[in-house]
Amino acid sequence: MPVIEVEHLHKRYGDKVAVDDVSFAVERGEIFGILGPNGAGKTTTVECLEGLRTPDGGELSVLGLDPRRDRAELRQRVGVQLQEGRLQDKLRVGELLDLYAAFYRTPADPGELLATLGLTEHRNTAYKKLSGGRQQRLSIALALVGSPELALLDELTTGLDPQARRDTWDLIEAVRAQGVTILLVTHFMEEAERLCDRIAVIDAGRVVAVDSPAGLVARVTDEQVVRFRPSAPLDPGVFEALPEVRSVERQGERLVVRGGGNVLHAVTSLLARLGVIAGDLRVEQAGLDDAFVALTGHRPE
Ligand code: ATP
């Protein structure tokens, strides 16, 4: 049974349709991403899963339970990353973590979590005195302190510097390795590509695609561009006979070969047969940002 099932979720705020028709399922142990432009309905979808909002239509199930009816039970088993401003400003880091740990039947060790998130030396700092990045890390610690089966993380690394972001990704992978299922809302392509097993791309309240990051990219294009400087003069025409190759172009000393499938292997095998070495070899292929643009018509932020 999937850990999360969303079927035809629909949610309005007055006349404004925030989520039109969203369906997806998250399997146990997955890191599942929800990716989409601003205002696509990502946060509203997650808030419905958290039981904070009542859907106007559709069916939701979280760990086989109903997010609103079974909220008390789910609160024990699902970790939620709180949005900015929902914490008591004056409480200190250690106090907040101990307080939250006390809500759960089987809490994690707060000291260990602080160490993992690099917050040990800020144990006695009041929440409002923390930098934005540390507030963010504390919100992740609070989402994990109940040893949840499922963590719902909205804008996991927003406001973090690149190093803190990478550390957080490592942490999330370690949490998943312990068997926790993770639903992640993000608008960072690199984050989605690096962390997510599968991604639902949402635009204007609808799911436009659900697939692995590589699968999303492959839907849009399989084109790869291979550039290199041959160690000996080469007739570009030799590559045109390869079925994987679509075009070959000379750019100064370099050759630029475009193709699909296993074009890199085809090109390097032919070079090896010819006894030519490829200097400065570079391979470019489409990334998740290209797929995002093709699927939603929006540029990533
Ligand atoms: P972002 O990436 O900007 O956080 P999102 O994909 O999470 O966007 P939502 O926050 O779910 O999108 O918002 C979806 C739509 O609903 C947006 O047009 C937003 O302006 C609107 N909306 C969200 N919350 C409310 C609210 N409480 N009242 C009225 N409209 C709302």
What would your notes on this structure say?
This protein is α/β, with parallel strands linked by helices and 301 residues long. It has two domains: 4-218, Rossmann fold (3-Layer(aba) Sandwich), CATH 3.40.50.300; 222-285, 2-Layer Sandwich (Alpha-Beta Plaits). Helices cover 33% and strands 29% of the residues. The strands form three sheets. Strands 5-6-7-3-8-9 form a six-stranded mixed β-sheet, with helices on both faces. Helix 8 crosses helix 11. The longest helix is centred in the middle third of the chain and has 16 residues, at 162-177. It starts with a strand and ends in a 5-residue tail after the last helix. The mean pLDDT is 91. The site of adenosine-5'-triphosphate has 12 residues, from strand 2 and helix 1. This is ABC-2 type transport system ATP-binding protein.
